[in-house]
Each structure stands twice: as C-alpha cells, then as structure tokens.
Amino acid sequence: MYKQLDADVVVAGGGPAGINAAIAAGRLGARTVLVERYGFLGGMSTIALVYPWMTFHTMEGKQVIAGIAQEIVDRLQAMNASPGHVRDTCGFVRTVTPYHPDLYKLVALEMLKEAGVKVIVHSFLNEAVVDNGRIAAIRLATKSGPLEIRGHTFVDATGDADLAYFAGAPVLKGRESDGKTQPMTMKFRMKGVDLAAVKQYMIAHPDEFYRKTPVDELADLPLTAVQGFYKHWKEANLPINRDQVLFFTGPDADEVVVNMVRVQGLDGTDVEQLTEAEELGRKQVVMIAEFMKKSLPGFERASVTQVGTQIGVRETRRIDGQYALTMDDVVQGRRFDDVIARSGYPIDIHDPSGKNVTAAWIAGDGAYDISYRCLLPKKVGNLLAAGRCISTTHEALATTRLTPSAMATGQAAGTAAAIAAAEDRSPHSIDTKRLQGTLKQHGAILA
User: Fold this and answer.
1) Which of 17, 67, 128, 286 would give a disulfide with 444, using CB separation of 3.0 to 4.6 Å?
2) Beta carbons within 8 Å of 167's beta carbon, 6+ residues apart
3) Does the CA dihedral 48-108-126-170 come out positive or negative?
4) H/E segment holding residue 354
C-alpha cells in the first residue's frame, strides 16, 4: 500500500537543475514537490564536489545566465560563502564562481521553503506510473515505506534521465558511434596548500601550463584554477589515462578541489559498473594525492580532507527530445525562436577512451541558445527534462551539462511545468512566447 501525495508539479532530483525548477514552479503558485535520493540537496555540486560553477559569462565577459541562478550566487555572497564571479586563471572560460557547498545546501532549502515547495529527501525514485502517454505518479522507496506522488506535470532533473526512462520515453546514451560516455571523476579536497608558491611557479614556468592561462596577469589576480604541470605529470607516469594536472582553489585560502581521476568505459546507470567505478575512483584519489604531495610545489604539507560522497558523473542517459542541440549549434552560436536559456561554456569533451579533452569555441557573440524543444521528450506528454539529461548530441552535452547551464534549463522547465499545470495542458502545447516572457520577468537572459 502506497502512501499518497498530490501536487501540480513534481520535480525528480535535487541538484542545481531540480532546485531551480522547483523554485520557479513554486513561485508561480504551483503546488510543487521536490524529491531527492540523498539527505541533502545540491546534486553533483555537493555530492561529487563538482566545483566551481563554470560559467555564467561568455569569454568576453558578457553575462548570459542569471535569474534564479544569480539569486543563489547573490545569497551566497551575502553570507561570505562565495566571492561571486571571478576570473578563471587557467583561461578555459572567462569566469568561475566558487562557493561553499554546505552553505549552498542551506541556501537552496531556504529558497525552496520561501517558494512554498515541499522537499522530500532520502527517497529513491524507482517507478513511474504511466497512463495513456502521461505520467500519473512517481513511486519512491523511502525509510517509512513506499510513497506515491501524483501530479499534473513532471520534471526530470535526475541527471541520468531516470524518470524519462522509467516512464518509457526514448533515451540515448553516449556517443553515436559506440555508446561510450565521458569518464567519471572522483573529486577530492586537499588543505594545507601553499597557493602563493603555486602561483610563483606558474609565473616562472609558463610553458608548463595551459596555453590560455593569463600568466601576465597572475600577479594581480586571485588564483582560482590551475591546469598544467605537464612535465611533473608526465614524469609521474601513473596508470591514469589523462594528460595534465587540474585543480581549483577554495573555498578556504589553503584549499583546492582536484579534478584528475578518470574512470573510463563504465556505465553510470548500471549498478554493478557504478560500484566498480566508485572503487577505481577512490584508488586513483590515493595515487594522485600522493603524487601531488611529493611532486608539486606548494603541496608539500597538503593533505586530503574530503572525497566525494559519490563519483562524479558527466554523462549517462539523455532524453531523445523534440530537438537535439548539436555541436554545430553551439560553435556557431545559433539562435532559436523558442530560446529558453543561453550558455557561454565551450564544448568540453573528456575523451571516453583516450587521454585528451576536446574543446571547441563559440562564435558570434560567444553564446548559444538552448531551444525549448530540447526539454520536451517524445512519447510522454506531461514530462520535461532539465539539466544534464536534456536532448542534445553527445558533443553538445559537453557544454549543457555544466552547472550554470543546468540551473538555467531548470528554471525554464519549472516555469513551463507551472504554466502547463495552471492551464491544464501539456507542456508541449503551452505558448512559448508566454514562457519566454515569464522567464524574462524572473531575471532569465534570453538575448
């Protein structure tokens, strides 16, 4: 026997996309329920230490993501939990946005409560009840027994398209040629790092770092990101299939988050393979941390203080939607009449089988549009996707998966879901102009 709850909008997944979707829907008056499998919110930003947020701006510094996402940054700044948008000192993007993950959890809860959203954590989505091409309810496994939440419109913000998959909507996975996905990464924090020594070494040895590193400006910039140490990494010859050191500073002055683990060839939606990935990731953490302490200037007194609650997942399932954003759309800076979000993050493909990262830059004004049709799955009439599982190609996912983009598509999905529920219609048939107008009224940037 299922305990039952009723809602207008049901959001599955409490990561950045789901948080923003639920806030948007709640603010528009929809009875909204947000469900999350862990005991806290934040998704990959808190579960897997995906840090910092990259990026709210184009390479030229024009802000293209705002709305609820910017409100979150503003609140964190007011709590001294973020410096706001600061220069990316590895030069891959214009800005990064550091933040304190535990305070982000609290800010998200406060904003959801203010919007009237009911939050249910420690609840694992395991079934969708579908009737005539519409989701009637989702079913959750919980500590207090099975729970069924009935709703008018649903948002899949699970990252892995779990709800779409359970509901029978067509999904895709990985690259077209072989289905392989971008590697998983177990991120970890180290404290006791002498960042002044790191910066001094970078200034003295610019050829050992990423070619876009703003070395000439480093003396006057706070160090936020480091990509390189190529010689040190090559000499270490560790059995990890990547070609460089990469870490980000903060939130404390002697602290970094390391993004170097590379677990390839395993499926993040297969429970046995995901279990294997967790073990491999933690073994690589030990190897990398030891290398950094022994070999990198500034890390002599560093120690590991935190490892991700789970391994970070870049790519699994995504919906097969009404339109799939392509690499060509991104690099040409394509505009769409039904735009619901923009992004200035370049293509950033961590090779599914090789060592490299493939990057491609955005032409035009440095940003591209995301079409509303990318949020709409086929075959299920009252479902929207948000965040990492929207409809894209494998290549385009390498930009839409980033957190600010996920926040922006989350706000769009939640807004559309609330409109659909209020008008008692499918999100496929709402007035796109009304959706765009509502998004702009709530701070979204669409032009």
Assistant:
1) 67
2) 128, 130, 135, 154, 380, 383
3) negative
4) none
| CB within 8 Å of 7: residues ≥ 6 apart | 30, 31, 32, 33, 118, 149, 150, 151, 152
Q: Mean pLDDT, the chain, as a whole number?
A: 97
Residues 6+ apart with CB under 8 A from 177: none
Phi/psi of residue 274, nearest 5 degrees: -65, -35
Q: Which two tokens stand for residue 25?
A: 């829907």
Q: What is the pLDDT of residues 154-164, one digit of tens each?
A: 999 999 999 99
For residue 429, count other CB atoms closer than 10 A to its CB. 9
- DSSP string of 113-157? HHTT-EEE-SEEEEEEEEETTEEEEEEEEETTS-EEEE-SEEEE-
Mark residue 237 as left, alpha or beta (left: phi above 0; alpha: psi -120 to 50; beta: remaining): left
Percentage of the residues of the chain whose pLDDT score is greater than 70: 100
State both tokens at 380: 């299920």
Asked whether residue 1 carries a pLDDT value surpassing 90, the answer given is: no
> Contact, 224 vs 98, CB < 8 A?
yes
The Cα 437–Cα 433 span in angstroms is: 6
The tokens 């390479």 sit on which residue? Answer: 59
Banded pLDDT at 354 (limits 50, 70, 90): confident
Distance CA 345, CA 351 (A): 17
pLDDT in tens, 2-36: 899 999 999 999 999 999 999 999 999 999 999 99
User: Is residue 357 scored above 90 in pLDDT?
Assistant: no
- The pLDDT value recorded for residue 252 is 95
Q: Specify the pLDDT at position 91.
A: 96
How buried is 307 (Cβ within 10 angstroms: 0-12 exposed, 13-18 middle, 19+ buried)?
Answer: buried
- The conformation of residue 392, written as its DSSP 8-state character, comes to B
Mean pLDDT of 128-152: 97
Write down the number of H helices and E strands in the chain. Answer: 12, 22
SS3 254: coil
Q: For residues 374 and 384, give the distance between their C-alpha atoms in angstroms, rounded to a whole number.
A: 9
